[in-house]
Design brief:
With about 150 residues, the chain is of the alpha/beta class. The protein is built from six helices and eight strands.
Length: about 150
């Protein structure tokens, strides 16, 4: 079943995360954890590729957190369908329970910015989101071309 949700804020938060996760219970856990670790972010939710695409078209998304395996495709299918948004600055974090070795082909892609194993925990995911968003702003003493390294 396609599902998409928008969790609006009342405080004028400036950053938006699109969480694409098909397991309802895990998505609720991620929502709660990100709300606690990153209260300054807004959260959009989708349970499949088809539900995520309209959200990208209707909201300004800063970071997509995408489960590798979805009922109607994969994280890579979604990434390939939203290339325009990635070119416009949307960062992509793949979240998966697959082994790091299985994820190497994904990490070699220039349009995937980070991989976080579900086993690493949600605090690690929140830190990855913060790091990726931090790299968007060039700091006065930061060398040109500063980028976030992909993590395993």
């Amino acid at each position: 079943m396609q599902q998409a949700n928008w969790h609006s804020n009342r405080s004028g938060k400036s950053r938006v995360i699109l969480l694409v996760e098909d397991h309802d219970l895990y998505r609720e856990v991620v929502r709660a954890a990100l709300g606690r670790y990153l209260p300054e972010y807004e959260l959009l939710e989708a349970d499949c590729v088809a539900a995520a695409l309209p959200l990208l078209h209707s909201h300004r998304v800063d970071v997509m957190v995408v489960d590798m395996t979805l009922p109607d495709g994969s994280a890579i299918d979604l990434v390939e369908q939203c290339g325009y948004f990635i070119q416009q600055g949307v960062k992509v974090i793949v979240l998966s329970s697959h082994s790091s070795a299985d994820m190497l082909p994904v990490l070699s892609r220039g349009d995937v910015h980070c991989y976080v194993s579900k086993e690493q925990g949600l605090k690690t995911l929140a830190e990855a989101i913060t790091d990726i968003c931090r790299t968007e702003v060039t700091e006065p003493n930061a060398p040109e071309g500063l980028t976030l390294e992909k993590t395993l």
